Amino acid sequence: MFAQHHSSYLLLLITVLISVGISASPPMIIDGERYKECSHLFECGSVKNITYPFWGEGRNKDCGLPGFELECRHDYPVMEIMSEDCRDLSIDQKSFTMNVVRMDFWGDACPEKFVNITIDQALFHYAPKPPAFYLNLSLFYNCPSPISSNHFTCTGNGIAVGDGYYATTPTWNNQTQSCKGHIVVPILQKSLEKLQNGLEPLSVVLRSGFDLKYKYDVLQHCFQCLLSGGQCGSNSSSNEFVCFRQPRFCPEQPQLRSERPPPLTSSSTEARRKTPGVVAEWLDLWNS
Ligand SMILES: *[C@@H]1O[C@H](CO)[C@@H](O)[C@H](O)[C@H]1NC(C)=O
Ligand SMILES: *[C@@H]1O[C@H](CO)[C@@H](O)[C@H](O)[C@H]1NC(C)=O
Ligand SMILES: *[C@@H]1O[C@H](CO)[C@@H](O)[C@H](O)[C@H]1NC(C)=O
Ligand SMILES: *[C@@H]1O[C@H](CO)[C@@H](O)[C@H](O)[C@H]1NC(C)=O
Ligand SMILES: *[C@@H]1O[C@H](CO)[C@@H](O)[C@H](O)[C@H]1NC(C)=O
């Protein structure tokens, strides 16, 4: 039974490799140490099996790309986005999407400082399509008089105290302008619907975060590398993609440049074993 499953898997693999085309092979570097380091998958709390372009916590910088560093803090991954800490609720490597929430919104809707986060447009974009369509939600704090009925309360002794107000399309007038703080946060459209229907309070909506899709074309580079038994990484000085290979796989001839798929050695089986979820998911993706 295993053999049967295995052979159909190989057939699929060959089909995939042929359809992918092996022409645009990534540069390969024989480096056993890096290979080993990059084989190590990031794991933190419920977020598991995370691979390139993410790095951190045992995955060296050159196992990923700048801007994708993850830190594991009390069982949840944290990523810095434009100098603000964001908590990664989930990472879907199949759709290259992560769901993130600003750390300062983890407790309530009242941040410790008024700051907008802007994403690095070179790396990410807000998940643009339904059902993950997003909207900008404006939050107003420390307003001398009520500006709308959409209010929430800020307690404690942070900078935001008293009533706060939210609006998707704020009207600019003397009242809104007199508020001491105004920030804009992206939220998912479905979250807004829950907020407007009274199904979820603002704090819960903010805590469900927003989706960011990373622009990096992981499939083009990394998938081929994994299938050929390598581990994805980058040159930390040039940031170019590199495929780390183990010394014992040192190919005499540039196998990956040939028109034919690379031989399905034990190394690719090993790669699949080591990055099980991702490769299988990417295989599905290629095949769909
Ligand atoms: C991580 O990979 C292991 C091994 O294949 C798998 O059993 C597990 O379900 C995966 N976990 C997640 C969260 O994807
Ligand atoms: C956040 O962005 C909004 C809209 O661009 C702007 O009106 C507001 O002043 C910004 N807030 C801060 C703290 O920069
Ligand atoms: C949200 O605000 C940002 C920054 O002001 C803007 O670039 C973007 O187009 C807005 N998105 C939507 C869906 O309104
Ligand atoms: C808004 O403020 C300006 C300047 O303080 C004032 O001249 C104007 O009358 C105000 N408008 C309203 C509607 O209160
Ligand atoms: C990394 O990139 C630099 C600059 O392009 C280059 O000189 C160096 O040889 C590269 N290193 C590796 C290991 O490929």
TrEMBL record:
Residues 169-245 form the Wall-associated receptor kinase C-terminal domain. PANTHER family: OS01G0690200 PROTEIN, WALL-ASSOCIATED RECEPTOR KINASE GALACTURONAN-BINDING DOMAIN-CONTAINING PROTEIN. It catalyses: L-threonyl-[protein] + ATP = O-phospho-L-threonyl-[protein] + ADP + H(+); L-seryl-[protein] + ATP = O-phospho-L-seryl-[protein] + ADP + H(+). This is non-specific serine/threonine protein kinase. GO terms for molecular function: polysaccharide binding; protein serine/threonine kinase activity. Residues 254-275 are annotated as: Disordered. It comes from Nyssa sinensis. Its main location: membrane. GO terms for cellular component: membrane. Its EC number is 2.7.11.1. The keyword Signal applies. It is a single-pass membrane protein. Pfam families: GUB_WAK_bind, WAK_assoc. InterPro entries: WAK_assoc_C, WAK_GUB.
